[in-house]
Amino acid sequence: MPELPEVETVRRGLQPVMEGAKIVKAEARRADLRFPFQPDFVARLQGQVVTGLGRRAKYLMADLASGDVLLMHLGMSGSFRVIKPNDEKSPGEFHYPRGKDSSHDHVLFRMSSGADIVFNDPRRFGYMKVIARNALEDEPLLRGLGPEPLGNEFDAAMLAQSCAGKKTSLKAALLDQRVVAGLGNIYVCEALHRSHLSPRRIAATLATRKEEPTDHAKRLVGAIHAVLNDAIKAGGSSLRDHRQTTGELGYFQHSFKVYDREGEPCKTPGCGGIVKRFTQNGRSTFWCPKCQK
């Protein structure tokens, strides 16, 4: 499932053709994706100007002039592509030619910017919902989400307070969307490796008895910031379904230090360890037992 860097990459790809433009035509080509479309889904979108395009955790959020917000989630295999008139983009190094089968093109937005935005989702785990902005705080899909890891409020002090007293593993705590929003399995593994912290470490060790941040917490927050920013610059990671809006692959997977590298040498200079994998909370965890303590 796409994580924060992949969703942010998609947001940046959609922003130039969506933000400030009117939705001239909205089309839902089936009755549902993961959830049924609202009966007035198309009516609440058509004719509306997108005043802003943001992201919350793994959700895309399009603000509409009406005061509504279009909430969009990519699910397991969802992707947006932007089709512009006379668009003859040459394939780049990481270009992935999309199939011509449009049977999985489930939603279309025709924008006054001249672009068509198509949402394709073979597995149909994605979803879209129109919500009144003044009702967002009560929206079950968003309620209880923790701070954005790239936001100003997320720092070592906040992470330490969130983890104080937690007896769960550090990896499980970071995957808890109430602790920090938007992180997933890939980037938690990578951030823990960069900070040289074991995924098995008890989360409470990030805080002192006075709930102040330890050096571990400070290192981890720095690693989270770095790995997410590096991944966004690389267009995210394309392991299965992620595509940028141009159809190009993300290529951060070529920079993985531990994820999906079981049995390979650790890339920490001077370490000499071997990357291991084990199952943790039902997910594969990749780490170096030698340099992650």
Explain the overall architecture.
Helix 5 packs across helix 6. Mean pLDDT is 90; it is low at 88-100. With 293 residues, the protein is α+β, with helices and mostly antiparallel strands. It is elongated, with a radius of gyration of 20 Å. The chain has a four-stranded antiparallel beta sheet with strand order 1-6-7-5. The protein has helices at 4-18, 41-45, 156-163, 170-175, 185-194, 215-233; strands at residues 23-28, 50-56, 59-64, 68-73, 79-83, 105-111, 116-120, 127-132, 276-280, 283-287. The protein has six helices and ten strands. Helices cover 22% and strands 20% of the residues. It has two domains: 4-138, N-terminal domain of MutM-like DNA repair proteins (Alpha-Beta Barrel), CATH 3.20.190.10; 156-287, Orthogonal Bundle (Helicase, Ruva Protein, domain 3), CATH 1.10.8.
Key structural traits:
single chain; alpha+beta; N-terminal domain of MutM-like DNA repair proteins; 2 domains; four-stranded antiparallel sheet; 6 helices; 20% strand; elongated
In short:
The protein is α+β, with helices and mostly antiparallel strands and 293 residues long. The chain contains 6 helices and 10 strands, in the order αβαβββββββααααββ.
